[in-house]
Amino acid sequence: MDTIHEKIIYKNAAGNSIEITYSFPFFLQEFTGADGLDSEIHRIKSPNQDGFSVTGESLQGRSLQILGIIKANDKVESAKYRAKLIQVFNPKMEGTLIYEYGDIKRQIRCKVEKAPIFQKKDTSFKRQLFNIDLYCPNPFFTDAEESKEEIAIWQPAFEFALEIAEEGIEMGYREPSLIVNIFNQGAVKSGMTIKFRALATLTNPSLFNVNTREYFKINKTMEAGEIITVTTHFQNKRVNLIKNNITSNAFNWIDLDSTFLKLDPGDNLFRYDAETGLDNLEVDIYHSPQYLGV
């Protein structure tokens, strides 16, 4: 029977990384905490009420534990691999854990709660047990790579070998639909990054959620080459203008009735628009579904 491929890659904020899997020198023995989550039920009780009224719920942070074995040829190698684990799993740095299980590849941000603890070696120094505890304030796993949806783009319409007729040739064409469906396969509502790009002059670009009737709008005339990025993640809301490779804050151009749009689980219909120069607008949306576990 085939064994399911399982691998952990941990990268800290300094760019150091390590891979723990079923091979030399870091052998994965057990990985726990990637599934179940504790939920806190928020409730109130009125006078003479039987039971409670539930007002909401929230998920707790996630604790992860890695149990592994250092496999080395001698005492010198064992010491080198111990030092590598200590360097990468630095409690003073945040990190990202990437977990692969079969065809699934997901990641989660975390902190080292307990740096590598090494248990007794065997007499040959060829096997060294270790365990590491991690804590994830945000309990959701996400895809290892963001999904990109191109809403408003120009498509190329020619290829080589190229023959140009007397009446000319169409170099490209505009996608005809102003509405796109973005499917969020995650378990909860999630933020996204919206990128408005001006190919030529346009005014007041916007994105409208057909389902919720909410929108996000920028009250600005955009010139060719300008890009405005809107990030709507929880506790990470940003609006930036990129012009001539210089990034600046663009919060002052937000329409007052705008909403930082989110993606509900399932289908989400969006329509892009601009008050003038609509054909000069390109819109991309980047998002990472959030999962309850792996």
TrEMBL record:
Domain of life according to the entry: Bacteria
Residue ranges of domain Siphovirus-type tail component C-terminal in the record: 186-289
One of the Pfam families matching this protein, by short name: SPP1_Dit
Stretches assigned to the Siphovirus-type tail component RIFT-related domain: 15-132
InterPro entries membership: Siphovirus-type_tail_C, Siphovirus-type_tail_N
Name by which UniProt lists this protein: Phage tail protein
Organism placement in taxonomy: Bacteria, Bacillati, Bacillota, Tissierellia, Tissierellales
